[in-house]
Amino acid sequence: MFRARGMIVGCAGAGKTTLLRKLQRNYQEDNQPTETTVGLEVHEDLFEIKDGTLYDFIDSEENIPGPRFLWDDEEEEKRKVIKDILHHSSRGTKLISMTDFAGQVAYYACHQVYLSRRAFYIVVVDMSKGLDEEVRIYHTDRHNPEGSLFHSWKYKDYFHFWLQSIQTYCDVGDTQTIQESTKSRSSVHPVIIVASHADEVNEDLQKRFYEELENCLSDEQSLKHLMSRNRYLNVACPPNKLQPKQEDSIEPLRKCMVETVEKMPQWGEKIPMKWANLEKVLIGMKKNGVKVIKVKKLLEIEEVDLPSDKNLNDGLRFLHEMGQIVYFADEKMKDIIIVNVQWFVDAFKYIITDEKHLARKGSKNLLITTGRITENELKETWENSKNNYIEHKDEILPYMDKLGLMTEIPDDSKGKTYYIPSMNRTKLTDDCRYVIKKGQKTSIMVFHFKTYLPHFFFFRLVVNCFKKWKPLDMEFFCKNAAFYTVEDASHYIAIAVNKTSIQLQVFSADKDMNLQSECVIQIRDTVESLINEVTQTFHRHIEYERGFSCTVINITDEDDEYFLRESQIVEIKSITGKEKRSFPKHVLRNPHDINKYQMMQFWFK
Predict the structure, then answer these.
(1) Distance CA 367, CA 351 (A)
(2) Which residues is 419 bridged to in the sheet?
(3) Could you tell me the pTM of the whole model?
(4) Tens of pLDDT along 451-492?
(5) Residue 257: CATH number of its domain
(6) For 521-543, what is the HEC assignment?
(7) Residue 69 belongs to domain spanning
(8) pLDDT higher for 348 or 237?
(9) Phi and psi at residue 521, in whole multiples of 5°?
């Protein structure tokens, strides 16, 4: 099997879509600016590799019909369509599909649908912008992170973010379907870095920009191994027709793409014939307009040798990793296959409210600021989109819930309402802080992530917590914190996120209600179990350290210099009988003691 998928990622305005168009030799050039990508755009089988060179793929059989036999009882027609499907997909062409990711932060939450270890990545960085400049001051018409977790991010922060995301999702040595013939290949990190707008900077910056990118990465994050001078290119890529010299800067990128793809362990991978047949049938369905199909309906197809019910799950998981479908074997989703991934992602795109691409009407300000949308508003939005989303609402929502995109708020007094964590842009209020302070409270337990920015991890955790506890009050939910209550309201729970950590704190309603260690420990174990459950859905296991924050900070505060590993606290020896000692990182600048007992109280028996 010679199939690869490339992902183009980077900030808004970096030139991702323009670059993709210039890679296409047959693209009709004009002087019109390239239209901004909305959400993400999937380009199936865009390129093919012939004789070691990248060409546009011209599908001469693209109009072959899909499997109408699913609802057509004419036996002769069934056999004809089956024959066409099998013939169409058996040519052995070496194909590359491309996915163009929008740079607007409003759409980042849905990018996880496509990030995969079976992909290579082109990270586009605008070298005409300083790495220490804030991104929000540019391209304000299409990039508006105001109030979001990305509000003050600089260009180097986004570069850091994309490499961390790629490292988390892309573990090239961890696929179970690689055959012995490909295992001997040297592992390659499939990341190509493109510095765009080279025509707008001087030669001196062009020469040293790679070092600037490398220097903005900390050794602690272990991301520099993703970079290589052999996969770094300066590109001049204006929106209008390229001059010969500019065209010359594109050709090395085409060559780099071919070399990267041919070194990937999955290139030339052998798969079971039944999996290949399964892919052909699902591709045919998508071409014929099928969006979603039930597994039971798929198994009714007798004309194609498909995997049996027992082995079908492995084939579907493989196609999910390939980016062909969306499929999870969870109880609520194992009977449903999302056949058209672009259609599914667009369902989320119509809900979120990047101001330029707003599809909703009505109380848009509520959704922009709080991330909440009523069922009536959801129906109105999807009905206006004319893409059959309402018809498939019951199939779509479990998948959105699984991915942390959107979930139903339990027992909401205003009727059925849904919560979209990534759209919440409100800040933690003084009222929320007062609620924590007025009762008894634990110290802040910290799950410190070494190699991953946990923002979207946090969104999925917030959604999963709705299945364990009721929200304390949705007015308390903000862009970086969520509040829940146990059933008898004796213990409240605050879960928050910052640049490096997930934070957990338990507190009571007032001073008269004492916290119980048994309940706090149960909450701790539940949260840690949910964190471990979410990490297992990533291709690379996400590592974290458990510890505590120094008592001088509040929940949601940044804790780069305030985090103590659990083992560090356990090692504190009693000197005065109170098991105190100076906080090691604050001896000079902000001296204060830490109390081992107070910090670990309630969290352990």
Answers:
(1) 9
(2) 372, 407
(3) 0.83
(4) 666 677 889 999 999 999 999 999 899 989 999 999 999 999
(5) 3.40.50.300
(6) HHHHHHHHHHHHHHHCCCCCCCC
(7) 58-92+271-338
(8) 348
(9) -65, -40
